[in-house]
Design goal:
Number of domains: 1
CATH architecture: Beta Barrel
Structural class: mainly beta
Helix content: under 10%
CATH topology: Porin
Order of helices and strands: HHEEEEEEEEEEEEEEE
Number of strands: 15
CATH class: Mainly Beta
CATH superfamily: monomeric porin ompg
Shape: globular
Largest sheet: 14 strands, antiparallel, barrel
Length: 304
């Protein structure tokens, strides 16, 4: 319990110390299954080679809507204190598209027999393209939108910390430390984002477990984004839950553990803002596969 208190205090201090330009990194309803995207310290934490992919179509029916796809692979090395991973992201919104490739490295300290604290580094690049000349504008001949951008390369670095035990997890991270220019000017930059995540798995009966989780995302100049979710896990096979994003959206999701290695999931969320009138909602599909080996200490299925 003392460890839990210290982790909670660290999360609160880290987020409250931030001052609340726009959020740029994609967000997901099933954020709890996409930890490596934002936190490199998660690499290797499952104890096996794990692969996860999520595709998200946001605000379906709205022209120029965001569309995001992530793929992550990670595994511990034979020296189990070290984990490595790869993440790839394709994010499109209107005329702007980003393709990100990152390598992840983590080193874990064993705090107790069943708990670890990991430190992680992320390094990679972001390829940015824009088709601003195709936009319809109120001012004809806007020179700021006349030229398209092709494959602008922005290298970057990230850092994270991640604590986990069989029933509890928490992490803080910033996946892009360097505020690179998006278009070569000083006015449009990749803003530094800060993430915090926390959750637990609580047995309530022989067949049921409850998993509450929360994620906080913050960046300078934008409102803090807070996601909260509760998942009911039945017989280690069926996962059903709901999610609420503060002042932004609510959603539901369901996942099915086909076997101890393979899980599929779907999710949908709906905006609580005025944009709700102009779209049919947001939808996600998840695929997750664990290359499980017969080793002691491997959780199957895993909860995070």
């Amino acid at each position: 319990m003392k460890n839990y208190t210290k982790i909670l205090a660290l999360l609160v201090v880290s987020i409250v110390s931030l001052h609340a330009k726009a959020q740029q990194d994609p967000q997901f309803t099933q954020y709890f299954d996409n930890a490596l995207f934002v936190n490199p310290a998660y690499a290797g934490s499952t104890g096996m080679l794990s692969a996860t992919s999520i595709h998200r179509e946001q605000w379906v029916g709205f022209e120029g809507r965001p569309s995001s796809t992530t793929l992550s692979l990670h595994s511990p090395l034979s020296y189990e204190s070290v984990g490595i991973g790869l993440t790839a992201v394709r994010d499109v919104i209107g005329p702007l598209s980003q393709t990100m490739f990152y390598g992840d490295f983590s080193y874990s300290l064993k705090l107790t027999k069943k708990s670890k604290l990991a430190f992680g580094l992320k390094a990679g690049l972001n390829l940015i393209n824009s088709e601003t000349s195709s936009l319809s504008t109120t001012q004809a001949g806007d020179v700021n939108l006349a030229n398209n951008m092709r494959n602008r390369v922005n290298p970057n670095l990230g850092f994270g910390m991640y604590y986990n035990s069989p029933r509890f997890f928490a992490g803080i991270s910033t996946p892009k430390l360097i505020e690179q220019s998006i278009d070569g000017t000083t006015s449009n930059k990749e803003k530094r984002h800060y993430f915090a995540i926390i959750g637990a798995v609580l047995p309530v009966s022989k067949d049921w477990k409850i998993r509450p989780t929360s994620q906080v995302k913050a960046t300078i100049g934008a409102p803090i984004s807070i996601d909260m979710s509760v998942t009911g896990i039945y017989s280690e096979k069926i996962w059903i839950g709901s999610m609420y994003r503060l002042n932004a959206a609510f959603g539901v999701f369901a996942q099915y553990q086909i076997n101890p290695q393979f899980r599929i999931g779907v999710a949908s969320d709906f905006s609580t803002t005025k944009i709700r009138k102009y779209n049919y909602g947001t939808f996600e599909v998840l695929l997750s596969y664990d290359f499980r080996y017969n080793r002691q200490g491997i959780r199957s299925p895993r909860y995070f």
